[in-house]
Amino acid sequence: MTDVSAQLERLYCGERPPAEVWLEVIYRAPLDELLYWADRLRADWHPDNVVTYVIDRNINYSNICTSVCTFCAFYRKPGDPEGYVHDYETLFRKVEETLALGGSGILMQGGLHPDLKLEWYEELLRQFKARYPIHLHCFSPPEILNFARVNRLSVREVLQRLRAAGLDSIPGGGGEILVDEIRMRRRTECNSQEWLAIMETAHELGIPTTATMMYGMGETDAHRLEHLRKIYELQARTGGFIAFIPWTLQPDSVPIGKVFPDRIAPDIYLRWFAAARLYLRNIPNLQVSWLTQGFDVARRALRGGANDMGSIMIEENVVSAAGAKYRADEARLVQIIREAGFIPCKRNAAYRRLETPAAAEAVA
């Protein structure tokens, strides 16, 4: 049996043991020790004691989607009377409201629309860039794949055209668990190899991306670790992931919640959060999901590997529709960061700081 305390220090130092050793350490190590070593690695990446956050808006341009994912309560099938595609003017107003609240960017995603042409998205990005000083963090890998299929283009062509139109970075949505055994059961349209290939192509084109893991939907611990391994190996090749964001299934209003109605417990979330920090030692930023886990867990995660609190969520429709109920404004996130002993600092979606830490600390 592994000496977990000694093994934890070896993991911190970069040892990469077999999966069974990782799993033994994740569950047998005292939680405080696991969090301690993850926090040490966080401090190696970010020694200035700064924790970042972002003011942005999660704009969903359309809820029409051809996929039927069992963990989603947001989508509407084509032809559904509740389906929508926002016109440009509506989207412009949402951006203007975001800027008025001090926002630096938008996170824009939507369903897998069967008819919208790539030109619609290109013109929207161009209009955004012409009108507003804003970072465009848009279109998850399943959307990119859908654009390629609808327009009969390669993924590379789609990404090149979107980048030319103003796309700055790509969110890691649709990652869920990157094991097809799980993805096929959940009706996820984009398989694991497609998701990874889209991200690798984006990185080759100089488009930074985030990576995610959404868990608690019947996957095994080995599946979770396999997900982390695939993210780590892609990052080792490209260096294009700027952050990793793990969150948990919200089971209240989604079909899969009838099968897996229990939320991931806080201590289990923290164990996997700390494990992700140690495993993904080649990704600079780790964001805690206060939206799905709440503020008490977020506070603990800030001493367990997290260096980012994410967004104030001016607007968020997808996870909230599934049952996430937490809300926060800038003052709340700043308070939590300070209570954990860190200096809060605003950033944009590329994780570039928008103020100096000294200036951020001076703001009461």
Automatic annotation (TrEMBL):
<keyword id="KW-0560">Oxidoreductase</keyword>
<dbReference type="GO" id="GO:0016765">
    <property type="term" value="F:transferase activity, transferring alkyl or aryl (other than methyl) groups"/>
</dbReference>
<feature type="binding site">
    <location>
        <position position="187"/>
    </location>
    <ligand>
        <name>S-adenosyl-L-methionine</name>
    </ligand>
</feature>
<protein>
    <recommendedName>
        <fullName>Cyclic dehypoxanthine futalosine synthase</fullName>
        <ecNumber>1.21.98.1</ecNumber>
    </recommendedName>
</protein>
<keyword id="KW-0004">4Fe-4S</keyword>
<dbReference type="Pfam" id="PF04055">
    <property type="entry name" value="Radical_SAM"/>
</dbReference>
<feature type="binding site">
    <location>
        <position position="69"/>
    </location>
    <ligand>
        <name>[4Fe-4S] cluster</name>
    </ligand>
</feature>
<dbReference type="InterPro" id="IPR006638">
    <property type="entry name" value="Elp3/MiaA/NifB-like_rSAM"/>
</dbReference>
<dbReference type="GO" id="GO:0005506">
    <property type="term" value="F:iron ion binding"/>
</dbReference>
<feature type="binding site">
    <location>
        <position position="65"/>
    </location>
    <ligand>
        <name>[4Fe-4S] cluster</name>
    </ligand>
</feature>
<feature type="binding site">
    <location>
        <position position="71"/>
    </location>
    <ligand>
        <name>S-adenosyl-L-methionine</name>
    </ligand>
</feature>
<dbReference type="InterPro" id="IPR022431">
    <property type="entry name" value="Cyclic_DHFL_synthase_mqnC"/>
</dbReference>
<dbReference type="InterPro" id="IPR058240">
    <property type="entry name" value="rSAM_sf"/>
</dbReference>
<comment type="pathway">
    <text>Quinol/quinone metabolism; menaquinone biosynthesis.</text>
</comment>
<dbReference type="GO" id="GO:0009234">
    <property type="term" value="P:menaquinone biosynthetic process"/>
</dbReference>
<keyword id="KW-0479">Metal-binding</keyword>
<keyword id="KW-0474">Menaquinone biosynthesis</keyword>
<comment type="similarity">
    <text>Belongs to the radical SAM superfamily. MqnC family.</text>
</comment>
<feature type="binding site">
    <location>
        <position position="176"/>
    </location>
    <ligand>
        <name>S-adenosyl-L-methionine</name>
    </ligand>
</feature>
<feature type="binding site">
    <location>
        <position position="311"/>
    </location>
    <ligand>
        <name>(3R)-3-methyl-D-ornithine</name>
    </ligand>
</feature>
<dbReference type="InterPro" id="IPR045567">
    <property type="entry name" value="CofH/MnqC-like_C"/>
</dbReference>
<dbReference type="InterPro" id="IPR007197">
    <property type="entry name" value="rSAM"/>
</dbReference>
<dbReference type="Pfam" id="PF19288">
    <property type="entry name" value="CofH_C"/>
</dbReference>
<dbReference type="GO" id="GO:0046992">
    <property type="term" value="F:oxidoreductase activity, acting on X-H and Y-H to form an X-Y bond"/>
</dbReference>
<feature type="binding site">
    <location>
        <position position="140"/>
    </location>
    <ligand>
        <name>(3R)-3-methyl-D-ornithine</name>
    </ligand>
</feature>
<dbReference type="InterPro" id="IPR020050">
    <property type="entry name" value="FO_synthase_su2"/>
</dbReference>
<feature type="binding site">
    <location>
        <position position="72"/>
    </location>
    <ligand>
        <name>[4Fe-4S] cluster</name>
    </ligand>
</feature>
<keyword id="KW-0408">Iron</keyword>
<keyword id="KW-0411">Iron-sulfur</keyword>
<feature type="domain" description="Radical SAM core">
    <location>
        <begin position="51"/>
        <end position="284"/>
    </location>
</feature>
<dbReference type="InterPro" id="IPR034405">
    <property type="entry name" value="F420"/>
</dbReference>
<comment type="function">
    <text>Radical SAM enzyme that catalyzes the cyclization of dehypoxanthine futalosine (DHFL) into cyclic dehypoxanthine futalosine (CDHFL), a step in the biosynthesis of menaquinone (MK, vitamin K2).</text>
</comment>
<feature type="binding site">
    <location>
        <position position="289"/>
    </location>
    <ligand>
        <name>(3R)-3-methyl-D-ornithine</name>
    </ligand>
</feature>
<keyword id="KW-0949">S-adenosyl-L-methionine</keyword>
<dbReference type="GO" id="GO:0044689">
    <property type="term" value="F:7,8-didemethyl-8-hydroxy-5-deazariboflavin synthase activity"/>
</dbReference>
<dbReference type="InterPro" id="IPR013785">
    <property type="entry name" value="Aldolase_TIM"/>
</dbReference>
<dbReference type="GO" id="GO:0051539">
    <property type="term" value="F:4 iron, 4 sulfur cluster binding"/>
</dbReference>
